[in-house]
Automatic annotation (TrEMBL):
Catalytic reaction annotation: a quinone + succinate = fumarate + a quinol
NCBIfam families: dhsB, PRK05950.1
UniProt KW Metal-binding keyword: yes
Protein name in the entry: Succinate dehydrogenase iron-sulfur subunit
Top-rank lineage group of the source organism: Bacteria
Listed cofactors: [3Fe-4S] cluster; [2Fe-2S] cluster; [4Fe-4S] cluster
Residue ranges occupied by any 4Fe-4S ferredoxin-type domain in the UniProt entry: 134-164
Lineage, uppermost ranks: Bacteria, Bacillati, Bacillota, Clostridia, Eubacteriales
C-alpha cells in the first residue's frame, strides 16, 4: 500500500519557522511509524532528525505526536492510522531540530523528586524484603519509561513549563509508597509547592496517553491525598 507521511520539520540553522514536508512511501499495514521515518531518513532525506533506540517500546525515546496524539513511533502501526499520517514533535518542549525536543527541564523535574530509594538504616545482610501487598501499592508506577507522553499531553504543562509534570509525579509516587523508603515526607514537601502536584487539573490526558497503561491521574490523586492527610 502507499501512504502519505507528513512531517513537521524545523532546522534552526536555516528555518525561521517550522514547516510541513510530505513523503509518499510504500508500506505494509503492519509497518510501524518508526519504519516509515527510517525509510525517509535512510532512502530519501538523511537530514531528518528524530530519536530512537530500542524500537520495542522499552526505552521511550521515540515519543512524538502522531495524528494529533502522543505515541511511541515504534508501537504505532500504519493500519491503526488514518491518512495522511502526520508526525510532529512533542508539545510544550522547545524543538531542537525536526522531531527532537529539548528534555533538559523534563529530566530536571524528574531529578528534583529524588527518584531513587532512600534508606539510612544499616545495610542488611540480605536484600530489603517487602511483602507482595506492599509491593502492589506502587507496582503500577514502576512501569514508567520516561517517554514524556503524559507530560506532553498535559495542558497545565503547556501553560506552565515550570510545572513538575505528571512523569515526575509518577516517579515520586513509586518511592513515596514504597514501604522500604524513608524519604516520602521530603518528596511530598517538594510536590506540595507552587509548581508541584496542585497544578494538575485532573483532565486525564496523561492516563490516555501513557503507552504503558499507567493510571497516571490516579497516581497523582494519591499523592495529593497523601499531602492532605499527612500519610502514605
Amino acid at each position: 500500500m502507499q501512504v502519505t507521511l507528513r512531517i513537521r520539520r524545523y532546522n534552526p540553522e536555516h528555518d525561521r519557522e517550522p514547516h510541513w514536508e510530505e513523503y509518499r512511501l510504500q508500506a505494509d499495514p503492519t509497518d510501524r511509524v518508526l519504519d516509515l521515518l527510517n525509510r525517509v531518513k535512510w532512502e530519501v532525506d538523511g537530514t531528518l532528525a528524530y530519536r530512537r533506540s530500542c524500537a520495542h517500546g522499552v526505552c521511550g525515546s521515540d515519543a512524538m505526536i502522531i495524528n494529533g496524539k502522543a505515541r511511541l513511533a515504534c508501537k504505532t502501526l500504519v493500519k491503526e492510522l488514518s491518512q495522511p499520517i502526520t508526525v510532529e514533535p512533542m508539545r510544550g518542549f522547545r524543538v531542537k531540530k525536526d522531531l527532537i525536543v529539548d528534555f533538559t527541564g523534563f529530566f530536571a523535574a524528574y531529578r528534583s523528586i529524588k527518584p531513587y530509594l532512600i534508606n539510612n538504616d544499616p545495610e542488611p545482610e540480605r536484600e530489603r524484603l517487602q511483602s507482595p501487598h506492599d509491593r502492589e501499592r506502587f507496582d503500577d508506577t514502576t512501569k514508567c519509561i520516561l517517554c514524556g507522553c503524559c507530560t506532553t499531553s498535559c495542558p497545565s504543562f503547556w501553560a506552565n513549563p515550570d510545572y513538575v509534570g505528571p512523569a515526575a509525579i509518577v516517579n515520586a509516587h513509586r518511592f513515596i509508597f514504597d514501604s522500604r523508603d524513608q524519604a516520602a515526607d521530603e518528596r511530598l514537601r517538594i510536590l506540595n509547592s507552587r509548581d508541584g502536584v496542585w497544578r494538575c487539573r485532573t483532565i486525564f490526558n496523561c492516563t490516555e496517553a501513557c503507552p504503558r497503561g499507567i493510571e497516571v491521574t490516579r497516581a497523582i490523586q494519591e499523592v495529593k491525598r497523601a499531602i492532605l492527610l499527612g500519610q502514605r
